[in-house]
Design goal:
Largest sheet: 2 strands, antiparallel
Order of helices and strands: HHHHHEEHHHH
Helix content: 55-70%
Number of strands: 2
Number of helices: 9
Structural class: mainly alpha
Strand order of the largest sheet: 1-2
Strand content: under 5%
């Protein structure tokens, strides 16, 4: 781009379009990953610098906060005892575990691109736009529909899983059970020392959530439901009253 500008000012050569080196998918993934790491690092540090990270120096606490922020997006390691982390930090960890890694990876969660597309679509609706645009590109309608389907199904599975855990584990704290459920669904491997103490029914629920989270509920539905053949017709379109 700089070379093209130089040529346009100091020579007679025409300005040429420079194609993208990084495609839209990679740009969205890199931007979302950076923002999630920054968000997690800052807030985990603020909530834990006098708590689980108080034994570290300022720089050491920042490094630990960064590691926890990255780790909770399906890494599975921990250098800080999770049971010592405060409730606000646990909720941030749950949020990061739910989003998980990026697509085409071995990580779990709904994926960074899914979350990014949903946020971009909400912003475009709030602005009154008819298209979801980013980096001078329009995101396809199929990608948006798929993203919201994955999010809805993940919340449904997590809601049912936590509800069942609350029933079979009445002596456990709700936030603790929620953390275990999100960790299992996103195949993170984190625990607040609760999984070994679950009943047999609770462990079976965790196992089922791990399987569904790894395979993806959306993929299971595709495998189980009969595929519709394409029909060369289109029904009249109508808008449904929402909110």
């Amino acid at each position: 781009m700089i070379r093209n500008l130089f040529l346009s000012f100091f020579s007679k050569e025409k300005l040429h379009h420079t194609p993208w080196v990084i495609n839209l998918n990679s740009r969205i993934i890199l931007t979302t990953t950076f923002l999630l790491l920054l968000f997690g690092t800052v807030f985990i540090y603020l909530f834990e610098y006098n708590g689980a990270l108080k034994e570290h120096s300022t720089f050491g606490a920042l490094i630990e906060a960064f590691f926890i922020s990255a780790n909770n997006r399906t890494a599975g390691f921990n250098t800080v005892d999770v049971s010592l982390i405060s409730a606000p930090t646990l909720m941030i960890c749950i949020f990061l575990m739910w989003i998980g890694a990026s697509p085409a990876s071995t990580g779990g969660g709904i994926k960074t691109s899914t979350f990014a597309i949903a946020v971009l679509n909400i912003i475009s609706l709030a602005k009154g736009k008819k298209r979801t645009e980013i980096y001078r590109r329009v995101i396809g309608e199929h990608s948006i529909r798929r993203a919201f389907a994955i999010i809805a199904l993940s919340l449904l599975v997590l809601g049912i899983g936590i509800f069942l855990l609350v029933i079979v584990e009445p002596d456990k704290d709700l936030l603790t059970l929620a953390f275990e459920a999100f960790s299992a669904f996103s195949t993170v491997g984190q625990s607040v020392n609760t999984t070994p103490n679950l009943s047999s029914a609770g462990k079976l629920i965790i196992i089922a959530m791990m399987f569904i989270g790894r395979v993806s509920m959306f993929s299971l539905l595709i495998a189980m439901m009969k595929r519709e053949k394409y029909h060369n017709y289109q029904y009249p379109k109508e808008e449904i009253l929402i909110n």
